[in-house]
Amino acid sequence: MEAKSRTLEITLLSAEDLRIDNKPIKKNAFVVVWTDTYNYKSTKMDAEGGSFPSWNDKLVMDMPMHTRFVTLQVKCKASGGGDKTVGDARIPVTDFLGWFSPENRLQFLSYRLRDPKGLKNGIVNVSVRVKEPLGACSSQAAASGFGIAVGVVTGIPIWNGYPSTSLFR
Question: Which InterPro entries has this protein been placed in (predicted)?
Answer without folding.
Answer: C2_dom, C2_domain_sf, C2_SRC2/BAP
